[in-house]
Amino acid sequence: MRHPLTIAVAQPRCTAYDVSGNASEHAEAVRAARARVVVFPEMSLTGYELDAPPVGADDERLAPIVAACAGTGSLALVGAPVTGPRIGILAVDAEGARVVYGKVCLHGSEAGRFLPGEPTVIEVDGWRLGLAVCRDTGVPEHAARTAALGIDGYVAGVLHFDHEGELHAERARRVAAEHGVWTATAAFAGPTGGGFDRTSGRSGIWSADGRELARADAAPGSVVRARFTG
After folding, report:
1. Is this model's pTM higher than 0.85 or not?
2. Quick check: 220 and 12 in contact, CB under 8 A?
């Protein structure tokens, strides 16, 4: 039987384009989370700045996150533009970083700058986690294709306006109901690019039967955690 998986969703403070400063904020969140997996919002490392240069897996500015993960035994799922170019997720642990996902369901001006990825699953301590970024979560086909790969959880980094604070919760509960999996959504908090002067925060974690297990407030810097069991 698998051990429970402690998972956290984090809303780090973010300064546009400042990868070094933002990496330090991510490292602080990893240490505060005390979790095996820490999920971060869409483009959390640069802000939602579509012209930000890709962040490579070997970028030395990621060193504070690597060090924090080494000290806590955590895996951080960090949002950033990555090579492709794609709106991606970097998996960071004590060994370094690797690109594990590219957003599939691009929209608006994203499609003119980035390439779509493919549904992806990563395994952590025997738990299979399907990955998603923002609009992916609003396209039922994305969750269905990801679930078809065999998943225990569906984790996402998102960005929504402040008046959309319940949108990612509704989507998470829908995925849980349709596929019987745990869900975790890290939502951006604080101002960022693309006209997102006011964002929702309110990151959360839900059980496979749709119960809310943890919910952050709307403030930058918030981190909450829960346990996936079963």
Report:
1. yes
2. yes
